[in-house]
Specification:
303 residues, alpha/beta, Arc Repressor Mutant, subunit A, seven-stranded mixed β-sheet, 9 helices, elongated
């Protein structure tokens, strides 16, 4: 009778809420409990499992390796329960909080403009949006969906391709009038090349030259933390930047920026994926709503 006396799904849901909401107090409010009751529940769960799930401090909670494993599996188990209830006609409306992490350019040009439409369609869903070009740990940051550009590292996460975008070197007309339009990749050495201050898969800008490809080192006097900041610097005439085509499409059409060395552009592109926890198709209805909405409404072209 021991296991029948324990509401394991209830314990699991509270534990997952603690991780997703970042603490006992927030989880208690969401679950209609007191913070002390939530803390005791997690302690009982740890005692029953014989493993520490959370390292607690006065400022934060940190998942242990065992806690990460339980959280990943717990999300799948609760998603399966949601799906079972949905198929039975119970709670078939997406509801709850979805934390989305996206790179800054995608956030500004796609995600934020789509938020009003999404909320009209899914009024019971609450969005928690974080924009950063740094690659985050989904579990550590309690993220449901992370939008990432570029090659994906091997992991146990699921990914849904949203499209791909080519890269283009741009500069403002004022900068080019002042410093000249480079005619060959070699002439970039005399220009101010703007770069990001986070790690990239490639150390420089790839360009076609003399029938081959070379990598131009990015040497300039300004670095920035995200692609949108680099776009603003390029618009201000600070230097040249290599950006995703969707970022600068309107600027190029309006003449605020000009493409540079397009004849040497190797045509490489970055794939954009929505990454999430959900092996075996077990994804909460609220998260699936976000994934389906992004796939339906994001239009990324390789050209």
């Amino acid at each position: 009778m021991g296991r029948l006396d324990v509401n394991r799904s209830g314990e699991l849901e509270v534990f997952v809420r603690v991780i997703e909401l970042g603490g006992f107090s927030a989880a208690a409010r969401a679950c209609g409990m007191t913070p002390s009751a939530v803390s005791k529940l997690v302690s009982r769960l740890e005692q029953r499992l014989g493993a520490r799930l959370l390292n607690r401090s006065t400022r934060q909670l940190q998942l242990t390796a065992e806690g990460c494993g339980l959280y990943e599996r717990g999300v799948r188990v609760l998603a399966a329960l949601d799906e079972a209830e949905r198929c039975a006609g119970v709670h078939d409306t997406p509801r709850g909080r979805v934390r989305i992490n996206a790179n800054v350019p995608f956030g500004h040009h796609f995600l934020l403009p789509l938020v009003p439409v999404f909320l009209v369609r899914y009024p019971a869903v609450t969005l928690d949006i974080v924009l950063t070009d740094a690659v985050v740990d989904i579990l550590e940051q309690r993220t449901d969906v992370a939008v990432r550009a570029g090659p994906l590292k091997s992991s146990n996460l699921m990914a849904r391709k949203l499209g791909q975008t080519r890269m283009v070197i741009v500069a403002s007309p004022a900068y080019l009038a002042r410093c000249g339009m480079p005619a060959t990749p070699g002439e970039l050495a005399g220009h101010n090349l703007l770069d990001a201050n986070y790690a990239r898969a490639r150390p420089g800008w790839p360009l076609r030259h003399d029938g081959g490809e070379l990598i131009v080192p990015v040497l300039g006097n300004v670095q920035a933390s995200d692609g949108e900041a680099l776009r603003q610097l390029a618009l201000a005439g600070v230097g040249l930047a290599r950006l995703a085509a969707f970022q600068v499409r309107d600027d190029l059409a309006a003449g605020r920026l000009q493409a540079v060395l397009e004849e040497c552009n190797p045509g490489d592109s970055e794939e954009v994926h929505a990454v999430y926890v959900g092996q075996g198709g077990h994804v909460p209805l609220r998260v699936r709503a976000v994934l389906d909405f992004l796939a339906e409404n994001v239009s990324l072209s390789p050209r």
